[in-house]
Amino acid sequence: MNRKPKMTPYTLKNFQTQFPDDASCLEWLKNYLYPEGIFCKNCEQVTKHHRVASRPSYSCDHCGHHVHPTAGTIFHKSPTPLTIWFYAIYLMASTRCGVSAKQIQRETGVTYKTAWRMFKQIRSMLVEDGDPFGGKGGKPVEMDETYIGGKRRNGSKGRTDATDKIKTPVFGIVERKGRVVAYVTPNVKKETIMGVIWASLKSAFFRRAWSSPMTTASMTILDAIATSTSTTAFATAKRFTLLATRTRTRSKAFGRSLNAASVASTTT
Predict the structure, then answer these.
(1) How far apart (Å, rounded) are the C-alpha atoms in residues 56 and 33?
(2) What are the pLDDT digits (tens) for 32-74?
(3) Per-residue pLDDT reduced to its tens digit, 112-156
(4) Angstrom distance (rounded) from CA 156 to CA 170
(5) How far apart are CA 183 and CA 172, in angstroms?
(6) 0.85 exceeded by the pTM?
(7) Angle ∠(51,57,62) on CA atoms, nearest 5
(8) Which residues of 91-105 are buried (b: 16+ CB within 10 A; e: fewer)?
């Protein structure tokens, strides 16, 4: 029986031991960015570098060329010590419910303006890439919608509409064992949802959940999509989805049908 390895706890004491000063933070950053050694542009090879005492950089032992590990990172040209940057990252990564810029200000002693900038910069590094889902070799994708907000005063349930000031529709797309994205949508109508889907997926076709068995014509279209080029498959899948929406019996919710859907990738 395979069991997941236990996660090793990383406490505040561990953090303070690993990063006691700015020099240890810079050394860690250098080792992370250059795991195989620093490549010197002047010498055109990986050479030995030593730390420059007067600035946060490393100098080549042969030609003296300087390399700044913080260049091109969120720490670039920041007067805030690296120990505070690293501690803010530790706070944001170790707190389950997240932290605010105000809490970073209280715990690090910096101004709120500095704490807010650090908070924004660190969060920008946590954003996943915006590449579309699916494509050749892509993972299956599942979609569903939900409604976020408090209870309605009149006790009514069900879908919201444009006049509902309590519930907000949110449409989510999840990659199995992968990324998750969520969009706030004005409604969950077919036109709105399909627009989000086409913008978020690469060339792919849907295996939808049906209230009745697929017809021969439907299977023929699916076969044509699977064997066609990516451009043709994308256009055909779009037409197939619209055709299926018109001909099939509507389910209780369009989102429930999407929840049962999986995306089979074709060629990119």
Answers:
(1) 14
(2) 999 999 999 899 899 999 999 888 999 999 999 999 999 989 9
(3) 999 999 999 998 887 766 667 766 667 788 888 888 877 766 666
(4) 19
(5) 6
(6) no
(7) 60
(8) bbeeeeeebebebbb
